Amino acid sequence: MTTSTDAGRLRVMTYNLKGLQLSRADAVAVVRIAAPDVLGVQEPPRGLLGRWQMWRFARDVGLRTAVNGRGARTTALLVASGRSVSDARALKLVNLAGRTRRGVAMATVDGVRFVVVHLSLVRDERSAHLSDILLDHVTATGTVVLGDLNERPGGPTWKRLSAVLVDADPAGDPTYPAIDALHRIDAVFVSPDLGVEAARVPSGPPVLRGSDHRPLVVDLLVAPERPGDPEARTVQG
Question: What's the whole-model pTM score?
Answer without folding.
Answer: 0.90
